[in-house]
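input
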Amino acid sequence: MSAMAEAVVDLDAIAHNARTFVERTGSGVMAIVKANGFGHGATQAARAALAGGASWLGVSSPAEALALRADGVTAPILIWLYPPGETFEKLLLAGIDVSVASVEALDAVAEAARATLHVANVHLKLDTGMSRGGALVDDWPRVFERAAELHRVGAVHVRGIWSHLAGAEEPGLNGLAEQLVSFDQARAQAAQVGLDPEIVHVANSAAALRVPHSRFDLQRIGIGLYGVEPVPGATHGLRPAMTVRAQVLLTKRVPAGTGVGYGLDYVTGKETTLALVPLGFADGVPRQAAGVAEFLINGERRPVAGRVAMDQVVLDVGDLPVHAGDVAVMFGPGDHGEPTVHDWARWAGTNTNDILTGIGARVPRRYESQHGSEQ
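output
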């Protein structure tokens, strides 16, 4: 390692995971690369996913979409969050599809299309029960009628219709059946006013794998793209793509009764060796995992001793021979006994998305594939 800490991203794993969803489901894949590709690097993750068979990319914001275009990514992109008053001209000139959930948004996109003389491809987003983004059921008639009107005159092209599922990964599939019924009703209403979008999408990673009738034309693959199994208790051959690790900076042999870290609320029970590792909560090590979290070092899992600081943690490595320059692994695929992102999510009382996207920008990413490594 040349840096104190690094996140190693396996691009072949991302390509493999995209391919797995294509092959297992027979449906198209929209690779979700928002939030800097779930912390993996948006452009690098996008290219790997496209190499694995994904045909679309999904991001939250205009800035994320335009950054991909600036990096030379030409695949179709959908965005779904933007501020009131967004003008959309730059997005349309860049060939980016826009999600809309209101008459006002439709009119704004149509105005941008007229101003730029570019086709505005829109996806109508419907709230089918999650009570988050999307048009409410009472607003569907107005949205569909206005969309059909603008579509007929060529102001917009209604390319897609979609919704978001609230609980496809939950053991009881809470509310899923009702949402899918609601989505079918929405599609029927859209058809009554002449709308027949060519792209229908509702499935996330979990739904794509466990609910075949949710797949439609595209499945939006987020956490599964990065190798995290989305269905509790099931495995589908996905390969985790990120390993976070750091060099030990310092070791010290201390007697029993030695307090460690802020508050000295960790006290050694016997003579032991402490190892200083330069990863802290500013880098994405969750403070709430202190007391239960472990790193892998020299083939053994060893506990975090004391509180997680902003820039560092201390490991109690016992009598394990550890020296400055040895590598401590926060998480990885688990192939060598290291903790996984699932372990850290459990220790921190959160989900895997939170852990992955929390790995901070000052942890350099190093990309590996069969074509070689790159920084």
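quick obs: Residues 176-192 form the longest helix (17 residues).
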